[in-house]
Amino acid sequence: MSTSAIPQNYTSTRADSATEWIKSWLLTVDHKRIAILYLLSINFFFLLGGLAASLVRVELVTPQGDLMTADMYNRMFTLHGVIMVFFFLIPAIPAVMGNFLVPLMIGARDLAFPRLNLLSWYLYMGGGVFALVAAITGGVDTGWTFYTPFSSSYSNSNVILTMSGAFIMGFSSILTGLNFIVTIHKMRAPGMTWFRLPLFIWANYATSLIQILATPVLGIALLLVMVERVWRVGIFDPALGGDPLLFQHLFWFYSHPAVYIMILPAMGVISELISAFSRKRIFGYEFIAFSSIAIAVLGFLVWGHHMFVSSQSVYSGLVFSFITMLVAIPSAIKVFNWTATLYKGSISYRTPMLYALGFIGLFIIGGLTGIFLGVVAVDIHVTDTYFVVAHFHYVMVGGTIMAYLGGIHYWWPKMTGRMYNEAWGAISALVVFVGFNMTFFPQFVMGYLGMPRRYHVYPEEFQIYHVLSTAGASILGLGFIIPIIYLTLSLFVGKVAGPNPWAATGLEWSIASPPPTHNFDQTPVVTEEAYAYPEDAAAQDSDSWQAGSHL
Amino acid sequence: MYVIGKQWMWHVQHANGKRENNELHVPIGQPVRLIMTSQDVIHSFYIPAFRIKQDVLPGRYTSLWFEATKPGEYHLFCAEYCGTEHSLMIGTVIVMSLNEYQAWLTTPGDVIMPDGSIQAGQVLLNPNTSGPQLGPSLSDPMAVAGEQLFTSLGCAGCHVEAGGGTGPSLRNVFGYTQTLADGSTVLADENYIRTSILTSMKQIVQGYQPVMPVYEGQISDDQLNQLLAYIVSISNRGGNAPASVPVAEPQPSPAPTSVPAPPSAGGPFDADLATKGEQLFNNLGCVACHQDSGLGLGPRLRGLYNRQVALADGSSITADAAYLQESILNSAAKVVKDYNPIMPVYQGQLKDDEVRQLVEYIKSLTE
């Protein structure tokens, strides 16, 4: 099939002029085009956040603060945190892959509210502009956690602008969540029962619940800080009669669930990848589905584990510690089920699968160190040190970003109709894995030895770990740049993928690549469960294997 | 030991008033309890080698305890991001033997005096014991400093230790459960004492009037720590509250002095206003210091009106209505000879009417 023979798809356009072409993208209500808009803007923010991280890492090569001033350093790690959390991790998988795939996977024409979907993108960009303007006009130095009373009374940086950015972005997140929930409830194709939904849909459903219920609390907390800053109303600053811990409660009531906004969709992606590249029905479908919901629910009850040393009562500390342990159960269920799915599967180590396997390993480390931190006695020592930094990077980078990259590689042929260079894909996955571990494993060690986080200068004994970490970060950065190059090249020189290059199940693989604007020619009727791979797929594959076969 | 965190420094005050910055000297083998607060944002007191960490918050106390087991020098970090120089808010914990610690304590250094000032090259010695000064006891210089402050600020005028004052006796308050005016109970810990000193009306003890002045912004954290040390030192802690916590009945106002204008002493006054003024005088707690016996912390006011008053600066002035009014609103302006400028400022706290009532009442006090 040559390029010209590809039927009308969502990327092709009837626009006559450049202006119309731009309009056809910026005013589109097609979920697939909006997903592409998100893909471009989110990757832009990812690179920006990555740039800030690089500067932080370079500064930390030496114990002295010789590259930049303390104020500059504080602005850099804050920029890194704010951009990565609010403008990359939270929207990344739902807004890019969720937008693209939710309607395709459930056999729908579009999301339930296409215009609302476009509005979410504009809100996201609006928030992004605020954050960018804040960064350019002097930056903000509160850390992404905006702790009071520092943020409300003491910091003299662009706190309000940045908070407005996060506040506005929050609405984007809420609207996307709302859109997904309604779509998943009301627009499933005939025969697509709840338990035939791909697990990616379950994961996004659980994520959407959190987005709708928790994000408003963050909005309120940020708004209150702004009120205190502008009008000096005593809310959080004790000098004005406020309570500084109130902010931490409000903030973590959102921001802990937000951690699950970041990881749950990633887990959904991994469920898809593991099943597709093991060519095997996923093990324990219902358990994985409900564990997503369980994580979403438990996520609301554990915010206090961020505050073990904040002077909250030791008894509430114990309760929060116990509930935190409970989160390990659904998380472990997922890991065990993925592993069980691999067992006797027809495993092929294609690029997405490499990312998926990397995810499982790194998430186990990230998850288990989360248990260390959930134990009050250990947490008292390691909280606010690099141990915490390493822990959440293992979950957020080792988890979410590995899944994001895996998902991008898996659905790239669907989104663009082209295959990328498999060899470079495998190399980059390996580079990311090695670079990542080299960056963050030393941070566990130095955190345990007592290196506090957010330090611009530090005692010399920690230098060796910082040097290792920065060296790893350079490799990691390379690993992120390689895919940008070969994926972009694939648009022009990549092999045409065809509808189903992975021989995978799922409605999205039953239509052309890239999908037509209207998705399905006829509303599909679903007659079997997700991941209906033949029982003897492994045997079949080994019988029919020959050098150069694509799986 | 008392710890105060501020951007970007750690202050430590030892029991004898000795103060150090970004260093913490502690004796080996002794449990050490730190009472910590912050002057600005949230900090976190972290000694990695001891595996302990506790956030230090503005506006309240948090505490941390440890017992060092090995002499040496250890890192002290601020673990909660606190602004520009967060990474320089570090120090050293120096663990030394008991004797060395004792010697260090009694080496002259920076000492926080009861007036809150810091004097270099001083040492406050415990006059009563020669042993190591650990833990609060009445003879600790820091508690003694607190006691001096307690007297000089005039607290002692109301908080009569034997009971019966306008405010509750503070003996055996710390560590005991207090019953508040609304019937609820609260454990009198460091934070309760702190809140009650700074803004007493938040938690009024049952049987007392909310007349204590607000000290928020009037005394430093160092002074607050000294007052706390004193109040802790006069409590035996543990066990139940002493059986007879003195509960002061609201002082029955003497029958209104509807006496006709006095023969000669002061001058004419308005009896109605004077009656109201008297109530105010009792309710505000003025009566505690301005005692009729002349033994109070403030001067006796009977027969004062229109007399010559000698002031602390050596001049004298006629105690007319204008002087009385000024002295009520801002007593520090013209302090009477032999008295300390400790009276709270009532400027902005009293209405004009109330000031006039008080002035009329003072006029009515004749020999």
From TrEMBL, chain B:
<dbReference type="GO" id="GO:0042773">
    <property type="term" value="P:ATP synthesis coupled electron transport"/>
</dbReference>
<dbReference type="GO" id="GO:0020037">
    <property type="term" value="F:heme binding"/>
</dbReference>
<comment type="similarity">
    <text>Belongs to the cytochrome c oxidase subunit 2 family.</text>
</comment>
<feature type="domain" description="Cytochrome oxidase subunit II copper A binding">
    <location>
        <begin position="1"/>
        <end position="107"/>
    </location>
</feature>
<dbReference type="Pfam" id="PF00116">
    <property type="entry name" value="COX2"/>
</dbReference>
<keyword id="KW-0249">Electron transport</keyword>
<keyword id="KW-0479">Metal-binding</keyword>
<keyword id="KW-0472">Membrane</keyword>
<dbReference type="Pfam" id="PF00034">
    <property type="entry name" value="Cytochrom_C"/>
</dbReference>
<dbReference type="InterPro" id="IPR001505">
    <property type="entry name" value="Copper_CuA"/>
</dbReference>
<keyword id="KW-0813">Transport</keyword>
<feature type="region of interest" description="Disordered">
    <location>
        <begin position="241"/>
        <end position="271"/>
    </location>
</feature>
<protein>
    <recommendedName>
        <fullName>Cytochrome aa3 subunit 2</fullName>
    </recommendedName>
</protein>
<dbReference type="InterPro" id="IPR036909">
    <property type="entry name" value="Cyt_c-like_dom_sf"/>
</dbReference>
<comment type="function">
    <text>Subunits I and II form the functional core of the enzyme complex. Electrons originating in cytochrome c are transferred via heme a and Cu(A) to the binuclear center formed by heme a3 and Cu(B).</text>
</comment>
<dbReference type="GO" id="GO:0004129">
    <property type="term" value="F:cytochrome-c oxidase activity"/>
</dbReference>
<keyword id="KW-0349">Heme</keyword>
<feature type="domain" description="Cytochrome c">
    <location>
        <begin position="141"/>
        <end position="235"/>
    </location>
</feature>
<dbReference type="InterPro" id="IPR008972">
    <property type="entry name" value="Cupredoxin"/>
</dbReference>
<keyword id="KW-0408">Iron</keyword>
<keyword id="KW-0186">Copper</keyword>
<dbReference type="InterPro" id="IPR009056">
    <property type="entry name" value="Cyt_c-like_dom"/>
</dbReference>
<dbReference type="GO" id="GO:0005507">
    <property type="term" value="F:copper ion binding"/>
</dbReference>
<feature type="compositionally biased region" description="Pro residues">
    <location>
        <begin position="249"/>
        <end position="265"/>
    </location>
</feature>
<dbReference type="InterPro" id="IPR002429">
    <property type="entry name" value="CcO_II-like_C"/>
</dbReference>
<dbReference type="GO" id="GO:0016020">
    <property type="term" value="C:membrane"/>
</dbReference>
<feature type="domain" description="Cytochrome c">
    <location>
        <begin position="272"/>
        <end position="366"/>
    </location>
</feature>
<dbReference type="InterPro" id="IPR045187">
    <property type="entry name" value="CcO_II"/>
</dbReference>
